[in-house]
Amino acid sequence: MQICDAMKFLRTAVVLVISIIIVVPSFVSARAQANPSTAPAALQPAPPVQLQPYSAQDQSVSAGVPSGWKVINAMGGSINMSGPQGETINFGDVFVAHEGQFQLGQRGPGPALMNMPSSAKLSDKLVMFLQQELSLGGKPVAQIKFIYATPLQVPPNMGQCGMFAVDFSGTPAPSKGMGVFCSLPPDTAQLFKLVLLMGTAPSAIAAQTVPTVSAVYDSYKIAPGWLQKMFSPYTATSASLGQGDGGAAAIQMYQRAMQNQQRVVDHGFRCVDAGILGDGSNWTTPRECGGWAPNF
């Protein structure tokens, strides 16, 4: 199993979430107003997004940069960029949390960005993490509401991963965020990694931003070895990922689990179809789609 297989799935999962949450409501709204024989404008193919190739100085990561966007940081397998209207893309960011009680604005010991119970639900961990980042960045702490969330099945010893889309509200600049979030198990020092692939945009332009974010996700590539480092425990031990044959076997197990999530993608498309074909004036989803408020 190649590293690119795991990244291909991550990209597919994230783009699917973006499409479900931002594009589908536009489909439904357009359908309610359009002649039934006329395809909604939102269904028309968008022109290809032009990207400028960019590689990190350490050669760990590469991605296409849209016109008018700028790269803020690129190293260690992660890349961060910003758009001209407040859009952001952060792929492959790794943060460290420490086992403990969460207190907004309080950092954890050593390298830890925060204290967080490792036993918490993944959705709760994501909310704590996002609000902590806002607080430590000196920004207003937004109210975070899940629009969509679904787990990705990975081996228990590899932690938790899930796809999500959220609304940030209660601030002067409401926005939407969507992506993949993973929480690894605590290591021997009670430290654990949080891995994030996320795109955000102001709510008013979120739908228009989808093709751009999708194109950048599709272009995102991590050099061999860096995905393994990303998902290894923070505190190195003889049993850590990336060390010896055991590490290689563990990362391959993770990659296989991610690759085998086609049913999650198929499930998402069924939800999309339900949204497009449902009652445009009173949009509903089937039970299997979680009513837009499932837990992960």
Tags for this model:
single chain, 296 residues, alpha+beta, Protein Transport Mog1p, Chain A, eight-stranded mixed sheet, three-stranded antiparallel sheet, 6 helices, 11 strands, 33% helix, disordered N terminus, disordered C terminus
Q: Which percent range describes the beta-strand content?
A: 25-35%
In round numbers, the mean pLDDT is: 74
List unreliable stretches of 5+ residues: 1-6, 11-43, 238-246, 264-296
N/C terminus separation: 27 Å
Largest sheet, in brief, is: 8 strands, mixed
Q: Any idea what the CATH architecture is?
A: 3-Layer(aba) Sandwich
What best-fitting shape do the alpha-carbon axes yield?
globular
How many helices? Answer: 6
H/E series: HEEEEEEHEEEEHEHHH
Question: Can you tell me the number of structural domains?
Answer: 1
**Helicity, in percent?**
25-40%
Structural class: alpha+beta
CATH class category label: Alpha Beta
Looking at the structure, the CATH topology is Protein Transport Mog1p, Chain A
